[in-house]
């Protein structure tokens, strides 16, 4: 098995680049077949990936079930992360941070995954109707019962992180982070570093925008980018101009745009672990090669210049999804109106 550089999430040593498993089951058009998903997951482990990230929400439990079928026979080779609070009930997406809902989601997840514990279990989003202390308390009880080993939060603000960490140490905070989405820099990164919490960066290649995967807004039905203003024309046409400049820089450095984006995320600190997703083994191999890439200060400054304020236009979420985001907005950030 290949050895990748390592980073730490709480007590766990993990590969510097993990794998986000969501798009093996939903979100970006038609997902691959089960057999293709199984091949990709095992190839990831063979290639040295030791962090697999899923959630109850993904495919309404199908993603957890896929991991259960594909890789649980290799359970000792990786750190398993999943999430609760966001879930699917009767085909509808629900946000429910009540302790009893968290317990039910966890038990269902363990059954689908075919394991007796999840290594890192996140509150997927903040349920503003439930005190964060109550939701974290449910995770503490699950840890005491041996069902989870470490606690995480996703898309939560510095203030919420502080409240949660006061109840029980948080091992990781998962937030969107890429050269074009810098929200963690508005408070989350500082809050994490003050407490020894790792940042797990999802969408580190900006939902394909920085991986050569978006050239026009002709997405397949059901693709979540159809709901995201910055991925639709006329805003997308504007945004692709900055992406083209980024691609030119990548070519100059002998990298793909995905590799440059991942190298940038890795360069922001050794306490950051990106988890790009893909349905392609070739793209997975391309992504993992970024773990060996180091960016100098000049290159980082050029990336900052390419994505200066205004280079990317449009909110990152539609209003309904943004309402579930607790992470701080950046100064002047565009927000979808309800």
Automatic annotation (TrEMBL):
Xref: PROSITE patterns: PROKAR_LIPOPROTEIN (PS51257)
Keywords from the UniProt entry: Oxidoreductase
Domain of life the protein comes from: Bacteria
Recorded GO CC terms: cytoplasm
GO MF term (any one): oxidoreductase activity
Keyword Oxidoreductase on entry: yes
Coiled coil: none
Boundaries of every NADP-dependent oxidoreductase domain copy: 16-306
Matches recorded under Gene3D superfamilies: NADP-dependent oxidoreductase domain
Database matches in PANTHER family: AFLATOXIN B1 ALDEHYDE REDUCTASE (PTHR43625), ALDO-KETO REDUCTASE YAKC [NADP(+)] (PTHR43625:SF40)
Protein name: Aldo/keto reductase
């Amino acid at each position: 098995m290949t050895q990748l550089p390592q980073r730490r999430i709480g007590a766990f040593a993990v590969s510097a680049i993990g794998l986000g498993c969501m798009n093996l089951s939903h979100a970006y058009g038609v997902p691959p077949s089960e057999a293709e998903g199984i091949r990709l997951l095992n190839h990831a482990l063979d290639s040295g990936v030791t962090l697999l990230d899923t959630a109850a929400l993904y495919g309404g439990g199908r993603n957890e079930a896929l991991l259960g079928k594909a890789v649980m026979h290799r359970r000792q080779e990786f750190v398993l992360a999943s999430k609760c609070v966001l879930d699917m009930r009767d085909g509808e997406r629900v946000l429910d941070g009540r302790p009893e809902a968290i317990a039910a989601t966890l038990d269902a997840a363990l059954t689908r995954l075919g394991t007796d514990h999840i290594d890192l279990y996140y509150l997927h989003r903040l349920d503003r109707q439930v005190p964060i202390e109550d939701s974290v308390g449910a995770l503490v009880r699950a840890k005491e019962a041996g069902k989870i080993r470490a606690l995480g939060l996703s898309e939560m603000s510095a203030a919420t992180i502080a409240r949660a960490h006061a109840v029980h140490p948080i091992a990781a905070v998962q937030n969107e982070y890429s050269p074009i989405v810098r929200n963690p820099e508005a408070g989350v990164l500082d809050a994490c570093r003050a407490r020894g919490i790792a940042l797990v960066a999802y969408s580190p290649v900006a939902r394909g925008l920085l991986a050569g995967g978006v050239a026009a807004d002709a997405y397949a039905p059901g693709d979540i980018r159809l709901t995201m203003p910055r991925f639709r024309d006329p805003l997308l046409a504007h945004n692709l101009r900055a992406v083209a400049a980024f691609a030119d820089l990548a070519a100059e450095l002998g990298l793909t745009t995905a590799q440059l984006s991942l190298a940038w995320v890795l360069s922001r600190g050794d306490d950051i672990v990106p988890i790009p997703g893909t349905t392609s083994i070739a793209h997975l191999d391309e992504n993992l090669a970024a773990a060996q890439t180091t960016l100098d200060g000049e290159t980082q400054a050029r990336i900052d210049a390419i994505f200066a304020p205004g280079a990317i236009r449009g909110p990152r979420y539609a209003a309904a999804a943004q309402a579930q985001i607790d992470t701080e907005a950046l100064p002047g950030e565009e927000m979808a109106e309800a």
